[in-house]
Write a structure and sequence with these properties.
The chain is of the alpha+beta class. Helices cover 37% and strands 30% of the residues. The protein folds into two domains: 130 residues, Aminopeptidase (3-Layer(aba) Sandwich), CATH 3.40.630; 131 residues, Gcn5-related N-acetyltransferase (GNAT) (Aminopeptidase, 3-Layer(aba) Sandwich), CATH 3.40.630.30. The chain has a twelve-stranded mixed β-sheet, with helices on both faces.
Length: 286
């Protein structure tokens, strides 16, 4: 088992694409990040990390560096976890955490922490859901509409609340830039009942799927089915437009979110974990 490091996202995808497509939904985040690197001008790209884990010239696993300094891994063979951890540590890149299928992310976190002498802390535990046929939601007033420029201030405030609840690090500058991109790319939607009461966004995955995210209802509006209706309507819209499937992540401990997604046609296809790295605390002076 060996780790093969690639000098660019383009070369990484050239080698790993077939492997990634073999489990397109489970590898959706990893594949999406790799493709996003190819969209950046070469001169403006920060230092990245792109690696495949190979055995007998066959790709058995993959890893890329996302932002902010979060390593994303695929399902990894057990024999490939320690070599990958050693290679990441030797690469000199700054790694603040790891995201991936539960067993692989957990194994990498422990191996990397031991070798790099950092502390590994368990972060969110997630379910990955997939939907190929949306179920309609009855009895919830309102309609789905695309977000517009005049919604910007509200979306920024909502995303900051969403990020805080989800444990996502997001500066004011990053949040504003994210919202501006989403509005420009027409991939953020609102549920409107006289006024807007919920939001949900999506990104198109390579090879025709869509990943939903940013599902949020402000606390005063919760418990009325608005997020459920918003997700159901957006999922149906995406599938009707020709997407092969829709997928999304949900916190395993958030019973309300999990109930929403099951109700509108999503089924769980995997468990994922995130781990964060930090320097161990300095012992007090003797």
């Amino acid at each position: 088992m060996k780790v093969v490091r690639h000098e660019s996202a383009e070369r990484f995808l050239g080698r790993a694409q077939q492997f990634l497509e073999g489990a397109a939904v489970r590898n959706g985040v990893l594949s999406g990040i790799a493709h996003s690197w190819t969209e950046r001008a070469a001169a403006r790209r920060p230092k990245g990390y792109f690696a495949t884990i190979e055995e007998n010239e066959r790709v058995r696993g993959a890893s890329v560096l996302g932002l902010p300094h979060m390593l994303v891994v695929s399902d990894l063979p057990r024999a490939g976890v320690a070599p990958l951890a050693r290679d990441v540590a030797a690469s000199g890149i700054q790694v603040r955490g790891v995201h991936g299928p539960a067993e692989s992310a957990r194994g990498f976190a422990h191996a990397y922490a031991a070798g790099a002498r950092v502390h590994a802390e368990a972060g969110p535990k997630l379910y990955l859901y997939e939907c190929v046929e949306a179920k309609p939601v009855a009895g919830v007033p309102g309609r789905l509409r695309q977000a517009r420029k005049e919604d910007r201030a509200r979306l920024i405030a909502w995303y900051r609340s969403f990020a805080a609840e989800a444990g996502i690090e997001a500066t004011a500058e990053d949040t504003a830039a994210l919202v501006d991109r989403r509005i420009a790319r027409r991939n953020i939607f609102l549920w409107e009942v006289e006024e807007v009461v919920a939001m949900a966004g999506f990104v198109t995955r390579p090879r025709g799927g869509a990943s939903l995210s940013m599902v949020y209802t402000p606390p005063p509006r919760r418990g009325r089915g608005y997020a459920t209706a918003c997700v159901a309507a957006l999922t149906a819209k995406l599938l009707d437009s020709g997407r092969e499937d829709c997928c999304l992540f949900a916190d395993r401990d958030n019973a309300a979110s999990n109930a929403i997604y099951a109700k509108v046609g999503y089924t769980c296809v995997g468990e994922f974990e995130e781990w964060k790295f930090s320097l161990p605390p300095t012992p007090p002076p003797a």
